[in-house]
Amino acid sequence: MSDAKKSGIGRWIALVVVIGLGIGGYMYWQESQHWESTDDAQIDARIHEVSARVAGTVQAIKVEDNMLVEAGTVLVELDPRPYQVAVDQAKAEIAQAEAEAAAVRSDLPVISTTTSSQLSSAQGSLEEVNAAIATAQQQVTATRARLPVVEAQLRHAQADDVKAANDLKRYETLIAKEEISRQQYDGARGAAAATKAEVEATQATLAEIQHAIEVAEARVAQEKSRLSRAQSEIRQAGSGPQQIAATQARAQAAAAKIQTARARLQQAELNMEYVVVKAPVSGVVRRNVELGQSVQAGQPVMTIVPLNDIWVVANFKENQLAQIKIGQPVEVSVDAYGGKKYTGKVESISPATGARFSLLPPDNATGNFVKVVQRLTVKIVLYKGQDGEGQLRPGMSVVPKVRVK
């Protein structure tokens, strides 16, 4: 074959290749218009920090790093002895509070009955004493009323006695001179003896009346003393309602103490449950503590990553978001597995750029401003059932392609 012919065939081959490349490039360009992709994307998931709810010393660790656990699996056990002591103490406090409440409740009816009985008895005694005082005062008044009469009788008898004595002396002189008869003399002597006896009898009656007055006055004083005691008993019995109210207040305080002790027991029993740390969700664990380590309440002891709930966080440039809509299908290539494909959809778009969410947002209000294309986060969820072996892990780099047309 001549060189000219060979040259012509070469030109035809080159032309076919160029046309093929052109057609391929056009087709690639056409296809690329249907997709938006980025290599600034990673797998993400919820990271559960499992914390101790009470302080204590790690007594047992039931799992190892990277172990797959189910929700409710025991992860860590703390030393329960201090909390068991608290439970026992709370139970003892409840028993003591219930005993005190029972004692107060038993005192209440006794105090009520005793107070009522004392008040009734004191009121009866008061009426009796008032009646006795009135009787004694009447006796004093009546006896004192007799005193002037008897004193007058005594004065009259004394006057008669003086007269009879004087008459007897005259009759003694006359009888000595035999100027009167013996009969007259005996009559005068008898009259003198009679008046003297009457004086003595009246004096005795007067003494008896004075003694009766003293006795009646002493009885009045005695009854007044009883009256004072009865009034004191009534005042004491009258304070019964206050005593009952105070006892009722003590009963209420005892009941409140029981409630407080029961609440303390519930908290102690909760703390006993909290010494066993369980997995709140299913996933792969990472240990944060060692055996014998002292932990505080709220300190993370395990980290759990639930691999059945993962998604893709893709940071698209702002000029790529014009055609990206929620619900559009997505194809995700995972770098770690040689570009293995997973499918999903766009779930949401971030409300602001990553720069706005940073700790120190950039201030572009300067004279040397340089426009930088910003990126917004697009959340892509993968369809279930594609990662049965749990190969996808948070932080892996991926390349998502969103079909926009």
Structure notes:
The chain is of the alpha+beta class and 405 residues long. The chain folds into two domains: 36-50 and 302-403, Efflux pump adaptor protein, beta barrel domain (Elongation Factor Tu (Ef-tu), domain 3); 84-257, Helix Hairpins (Orthogonal Bundle), CATH 1.10.287.620. Helices cover 55% and strands 20% of the residues. It has helices at residues 3-32, 81-176, 182-238, 240-274, 354-357, and strands at residues 35-37, 41-45, 48-51, 56-61, 68-69, 74-78, 276-278, 283-287, 294-295, 300-305, 310-317, 329-334, 340-353, 375-382, 398-403. A seven-stranded antiparallel beta sheet has the order 1-15-12-13-14-11-2. Strand 12 and strand 13 (340-353) form a beta hairpin. The chain is rod-shaped and about 230 Å long.
In short:
The chain is of the alpha+beta class.
Q: Give the overall shape.
A: rod-shaped
Largest sheet: 7 strands, antiparallel
Can you identify the CATH class of the largest domain?
Answer: Mainly Alpha
CATH fourth-tier homologous superfamily of the largest domain: Helix Hairpins
Radius of gyration computed on alpha carbons: 61 Å
How much β-strand is present in the residues? 15-25%
Stretches where pLDDT is under 50 for at least 5 consecutive residues are none
CATH architecture of the largest domain: Orthogonal Bundle
**First-residue to last-residue Cα separation:** 52 Å
Structural class: alpha+beta
Reading side by side through the largest sheet, how are the strands ordered?
1-15-12-13-14-11-2
| Whole-number count of domains | 2
User: Percentage of helical residues?
Assistant: 40-55%
Q: Summarize model confidence as the mean pLDDT.
A: 79
N-to-C order of helices and strands: HEEEEEEHHHEEEEEEEHEE
Strand tally is 15
Topology-level CATH name of the largest domain = Helix Hairpins
Number of continuous helical runs: 5
